[in-house]
Amino acid sequence: MRSNLLELMSTFVQVVELRSFTKAADALQLHRPAVSKFIKQLEDDLGVKLLHRTTRNLSVTVEGEEVYQRAKALLNDVGDMMATVSPNQPPHGRLRISAPLALSHTILIPSLREFQALYPQIEIVLTASDRLTDLISEGIDCVIRLGELVDSSFISRRIGEVQMATCATPSYLDKFGIPLTPGDLVHHKAINFFSENSREVMEWKLVVDGHVVSQRPGSTMLVNNSDVLLSCGLAGMGIFHALRTTVESHIDSGRLTEILTEYATVTKPVSILYPDRRYLPPTVRAFVDWFSDVFASKHQF
User: Which of 22, 61, 144, 257 is a Cys-bridge partner for 99, taking CB atoms 3.0 to 4.6 Å apart?
Assistant: First the structure.
């Protein structure tokens, strides 16, 4: 067994995740020929081809995907061991996070300077998207999720809930009237959000006489992006249902008017997920604990 096996595996993991020899070399502070040499050494030792390479494209072979998953898990375990036996060593390295756009804008990003001050040796790679990311295939360390969870194969920590609000611009309400009950929504234009993954349109859930009533008002517009949902709402294209944290400042400024305030909305749970590993990497543990505290401090109902 080569004495530099961990270095070979670390280089291979970087190449796979960055999909580039040049970017991996930059990240590892190596010359590009050294990265190519390490990958060839690993392929020779294993006796399999790990990567398909052309002048423009790089893809992982079936065997390469298996080696990648195992190598990453092993490198995480090594990092955990070092952190365990060296408790004074602060968490360091790259942390890949995925979070919904709305939570990224309003909660995560405004607080990230605090995290960076606490853990200056952690490099954050943030994927902000309303698409459900695949933690394993996309190499994500942890993901913040909205709504009820269906990923039973992952470890999850429910950190709280966010409130919803139903809004429209004053100009829209002046023109089409203000709905006084959830039933009145059928007479209005709605901007609806749909899941990019399932294509399912999000229901608007309100509490009427102690019972949860789910509605999908007729759409004048369907969008799969929470930024676009807010932009359409601010443009006066119709009534919409969104996270209160994304519309609150616009309600306060008068650009939006909250409606149906006599009917409570059903909150959405917020959770953090990460792959099932026996030892949680110190970078992930630090982020999960920190964000849980940040969220609790900002969203106590």
Answer: 144
